[in-house]
Description:
single chain
Amino acid sequence: MALDETTADLARIADEMEVWDGSAGADSVPAEPGRMASLARKLGRSLSRGAKGSAVGLADRLMAAAPRIKVRDVATLRAHHSDARSAEELADRIAAAGTRAAGAVGAGAGAAAMMPVPFAMPVEIAAELLAVAAVEFKMIAELYEAYGQPAQGNLKQRSLAYLSVWSERRGLDVASPATILALGKSAALRKSIRRRLTLSGFRKLPTLTPFMIGAAAGAYVNRRDTARLAADIRRSLRERQPADPNYWLAARPPLREP
């Protein structure tokens, strides 16, 4: 089904963060040629069959994709970045990779020549918004891991918690079980995600002016917005203590044999 294909594509695009931070395999490539056009085509096919094409439908797709996005725990992140000497250094790597991956999405999609509207976005813009959201979701979740404040609960609950952080654009206390229960109200979260996707679409209006159309503008806007998001989330995380004060040492990579 197109919805399943879309969610799988979003998970793969989010995984590009691991290419940009240097932890992916040597045979990986930063940007699969045509991946954004492919995502737009799949969205277009689902629209032609009567699927929801509004921000409501996009929110459903993002919520379906989130549990499929691989989130590295702090031990895996430390193993991938064994030279990171602190949570701040590790978070620097995660934020930089998320920013680069979001920029690559913008470069792949370019700027669509149609204005986004709240109820029927062009599929090119919709595809880019979903792809950037998937990258930012992974970045947010891994920042929480780096600072020792991972979301609690099962996979679905953790996904909803990080989606709430993404839609609110601020660091929430997702380590608290009470917070997880409050964030688990799917109807309210879907509404918040829909609002965020709509606002993100309108933020792309400057890239649609005659002098800024193109991949470079799309890449710049995505990098700027994702970097700002990472900075805001990190600021919030620094204000709270880790759930386990010894988490950083406990996640230390094993020493390599000489």
